[in-house]
Amino acid sequence: MKATYTKYILNFKRPSGTSRGIMTHKETWFLILERDGNLGIGECGILRGLSADDVPEYEEKLIWLCKHIEGNKAELQAELKEFPSIQFGLEQALLSLESQNPFELFPSDFIHKNAPIPINGLIWMGDEQFMLSQLEDKLKEGFRCIKMKIGAIDFKTELSILKSIRKNFSPSEIELRVDANGAFAPEDAMVKLNTLAEFKLHSIEQPIKPKQKEAMARLCGQTPLPIALDEELIGVFDVTEKQRLLQTIQPQFIILKPSLVGGFQGSREWIEIAESMNIGWWVTSALESNIGLNAIAQWTYTLSSDMPQGLGTGSLFTNNFESPLAVRDGQLWYGDGTVWKQNLIKDLCI
Ligand SMILES: O=C(O)CCC(=O)C1=CC=C[C@@H](O)[C@@H]1C(=O)O
């Protein structure tokens, strides 16, 4: 088996803001495997500034992996333990290589019977007009679940946007989720959660910065609206550490980004622990291209969750890869598999 890798820069159609900053482009890497004329591809979707493997030796690790690709699985996993996005890229590439069609990793009704995955519509940070126009678009596109980024502009403005939604749509008509990306100070968080709860929200993601376990546990113990841990899971690799974290904080939900938590394997570990503690979960992209998003979507469908997932990010980029993935009526569909460009993998090798 031969392994190579290549870097690719995804360009956002428009600057996309969260309380952590504005993104205009996103770096990603592809691992390509070749054996007996068959090709496999996996996306190593690092998120600079957020991923645990955002380290200077990232490319070196890819070089090491390509040299040792025929090494034993346990040795590879041990070496990649602290490189979750490369672990995920390898998982995808091996499944892709084994599969008849390198883009069909998890055969299911999603691929073969046009069965969709419910997703949330995403509203990025910006001024009130910009956020309201995104909202209008999402409602027109038939989304029944909206996720709004908060924490970067004036809280009052964010509340007035939520108010304008609830004035027109009840909780059974529109499920509302917000994502603070850790923007609230622990001492202000409870007051803000009480205020937000008035809008009958489904949940809030990461209200305060990660690694403030006691403060987060207090919030989860008293909160009037469900709290979902997102950034909090980053960098927690051991199963015992995962158990300890969820036991200490006891959140209502966790959010799984396979590229940040160690792929399918790492995500499954979190799901098992969460379910044993009656903690809910859902899956989101980490802004991968359609190659990584495709793998995440196919896997997510096999988990049979009826919750809306965070997989509506394929249309963010000007230079994404043509794919059968399509968003319609607030759902993600897998259309005609022949849409994948014939020599896409070969072209990426060059
Ligand atoms: O949850 C979604 O609908 C899509 C994924 C998403 O919002 C994010 C992915 C990666 C980084 C962030 O920009 C953001 C998040 O914080 O969840």
What does this structure look like?
There is one protein chain. Helix content is 38%, strand content 22%. With 350 residues, it is an alpha/beta fold. The protein folds into two domains: 2-102 and 343-349, Enolase-like, domain 1, CATH 3.30.390.10; 109-334, TIM Barrel (Alpha-Beta Barrel). The strands form three sheets. The chain has a seven-stranded parallel beta sheet with strand order 5-6-7-8-9-10-11. It has a three-stranded antiparallel beta sheet with strand order 1-2-3, sandwiched between helices. The protein has a three-stranded antiparallel beta sheet with strand order 4-13-12. The protein is globular. The mean pLDDT is 95. Ligand 164 binds next to loops.
Keywords:
binds ligand 164; 13 strands; 350 residues; alpha/beta; seven-stranded parallel beta sheet; Enolase-like, domain 1; single chain; 38% helix; 13 helices; globular; TIM Barrel; 22% strand
> What's the CATH first level of the largest domain?
Alpha Beta
Shape: globular
Strand content: 15-25%
DSSP summary, beta strand count: 13
Helix content, binned percent: 25-40%
Question: How do the SSEs run, as a string of H and E?
Answer: EEEHHHHEEHEHEHEHEHEHHEHEEH
CATH architecture of the largest domain: Alpha-Beta Barrel
Question: What integer value in Å does the Rg equal?
Answer: 20 Å
| Spatial order of strands in the largest sheet | 5-6-7-8-9-10-11
* Structural class assignment: alpha/beta
| Tally of domains | 2
Mean pLDDT: 95
